[in-house]
Amino acid sequence: MASVAWAVLRVLLLLPTQTWSPVGAGNPRDCDAPLASALPRSSFSSSSELSSSHGPGFSRLNRRDGAGGWTPLVSNKYQWLQIDLGERMEVTAVATQGGYGSSDWVTSYLLMFSDGGRNWKQYRREESIWGFPGNTNADSVVHYRLQPPFEARFLRFLPLAWNPRGRIGMRIEVYGCAYKSEVVYFDGQSALLYRLDKNSLKSIRDIISLKFKAMQSNGILLHREGQHGNHITLELIKGKLVFFLNSDNAELPSTTAPVTLTLGSLLDDQHWHSVRIELLDTQVNFTVDQHTHHFQAKGESSYLDLNFEISFGGIPTPGRAWEFTHKSFHGCLENLYYNGVDIIELAKKHKPQILMMELAHGLPDQNMQTPLTLHQAPQ
């Protein structure tokens, strides 16, 4: 514990694991169960309704009760139909119909999603800002498979255009499956340290994957270094994700400049963003939200010597001077894996290779350490 004499163990919020379907998680092709059809009417809401029989509770696909679908009081581009799935789910497809036996249907629409029902994000089809194709009549079903899928609890359908001889009319379905979610919350002053086994065989391919939701625009997501000063750091800077890599041996004269790569923008929007870092010899694949950058690291060694420890949320190493800021991450990390190892699950089980720390200035006494407490917090 000498390496953490400058820190105190901190209370870190580990959120409860969501239930999930092993079949749906194991094979994405099985993740296409209808999610809306079994929901109660109270799970549906809308901007307005033409009458009580045109309410959002009648908007389930192929249903004929009520007036046979949702229709707003006024047909304009300010209307919306919303579903609350009850918990965060993986959504893989959507389907629409018009109002049963009517001249009311939507020809194009936008799809929005949210975790909490307040902060919304538009789903974009292949980077297009245009909406989804809708219906050409009242009763045929138009399916659209989402590539890639997304995770959310709330969905909103926003009509853009509709049958000019009728009104807005919609019946909808959402397809997907339950979603596994292991979440850890960082308060901007804490870090999680994962110590690798020095005696284990060096992996040929290293993969780090996670999702993050940032509450602030700056902060360290992860830092990894080897025993000779080689290191990689992933940092959020002004809403952009910056990847730093130094493949030189710090004990030898530097022969190459550190690699700096920036991906993404507006990543501090309080939505989930995915990250995957893959190291194979000196080949590095860096992926943010489905966008991948491939590059070759340069250095004296044919292998990036990064086999000592990985820290998440901050850099718990005093007395080092880096060329980037030390601001720690404030937000949530989800489904944090290193070579298939569930880091958050290890933390929940108090495994010895996991340390949870409060970043501190100076060197407080070892006696300041306090027992680690895991709290169950609402999502």
TrEMBL record:
Q: Which InterPro entries does the entry link to?
A: ConA-like_dom_sf, FA58C, Galactose-bd-like_sf, Laminin_G, Neurexin-related_CASP
Which Gene3D superfamilies does the protein's record reference?
A: 2.60.120.200, Galactose-binding domain-like
Translocase recorded as keyword: no
Write out the entry's keywords from A to Z: EGF-like domain, Membrane, Repeat, Signal, Transmembrane, Transmembrane helix
Q: Where in the cell is it found?
A: Membrane
Where mainly found? membrane
Q: Which Pfam families is this protein grouped with?
A: F5_F8_type_C, Laminin_G_2
Q: Which SMART domains match?
A: FA58C, LamG
Membrane topology recorded in Swiss-Prot or TrEMBL: Single-pass type I membrane protein
Q: Where is the F5/8 type C domain?
A: 31-177
Q: Where is the signal peptide?
A: 1-25
**Stated family:** Belongs to the neurexin family.
Q: What is the name of the protein in this document?
A: Contactin associated protein like 3
Q: Which organism is it from?
A: Saimiri boliviensis boliviensis (Bolivian squirrel monkey)
Upper lineage: Eukaryota, Metazoa, Chordata, Craniata, Vertebrata
